[in-house]
Amino acid sequence: MTERQVSLRREGAVALVTLSNPGRLNAMTRAMWRALRAVFDGLHSDTALRCVVVRGEGGAFCAGGDISEYPSFRFEEASLREFHENEVWAALQAMLDCPLPLVAQIEGACMGAGVEIASCCDIRLAGASAKFGAPIAKLGFPMAPREAALVHGAIGDVLARDMLLAAGVHGAQRLYDAGFLLHVLPDAEVPAAAQAHAARIAALSPQAARLHKATFTALKSGGAAAQQLLATAYDYADTAEHREGIDAFLGKRPPNFRPS
């Protein structure tokens, strides 16, 4: 069941990670959070891949958490903490730590947990009818602190406050205007556009992608991480990809970035 609910399929150098919870708009179960972590832990060392597309099955991205499970664990502090820190955040951290570029293919509902998962992605494309929000205040509880900080950083202060304080639900155009989305597309065009964008990334230097992601993470963290970045920022000087990219440009030919 877990493997079916979070599946991984490879198409050349692109991985397709699909959330699937039929009948519940791909709402995340506890098993799905654990499976999502396992999938991304496995991607960290996969040198054959160059990009990942994260998507939902059946025309929805993810409608949040699967609330049918909540009475079994949310009313005890220890089990609630275990869920958020060792299941939800562990999965989100595995996504954030992934050295590969992540593209979110957002269709339909992107609520709560869906917004959190999308916030871990580097590039987000959505259909015009997609809806975004985190109306959990209606259910009597807040978004966990690290999850809220993640969403706040990705979508900005104004929309984060409205989603969490007023249970605001917003359309794709509003999220595009806030800088959360790269493109808003006709719904039918989203899958092809996401995969085309991933293919475009996969044709570029994987070394450059990996180092750019490390730069974004270090600069956001600041302090010692930023200093370490400055100390190692030019280690790529004598690498095959560096030489190949420049040689290809000077030779007026497409580069061939082979797996390392």
Protein architecture, described:
By secondary structure, the protein is α/β, with parallel strands linked by helices. Helices cover 47% and strands 15% of the residues. The strands form two sheets. The chain has a six-stranded mixed beta sheet, with helices on both faces. It has a three-stranded mixed beta sheet with strand order 5-7-8. Strand 1 and strand 2 (14-19) form a beta hairpin. Helix 5 packs across helix 6 and helix 9 (206-221) runs antiparallel to helix 10. The longest helix is centred in the middle third of the chain and has 21 residues, at 77-97. The radius of gyration is 19 Å and the shape is globular.
Tell me the fraction of residues in β-strands, as a range.
Answer: 15-25%
Provide mean pLDDT, rounded: 94
Low-confidence stretches: none
Biggest sheet, spatial arrangement of strands: 1-2-3-4-6-9
What string, H for helix and E for strand, traces the elements in order? HEEHEHEEHEEHHEHEHHHH
Largest sheet: 6 strands, mixed
Q: Work out the radius of gyration.
A: 19 Å
- Note the total helix count: 11
Q: How many individual β-strands? A: 9
The class by helix and strand makeup works out as: alpha/beta
Shape: globular
* Terminal Cα span: 34 Å
Oligomer: single chain
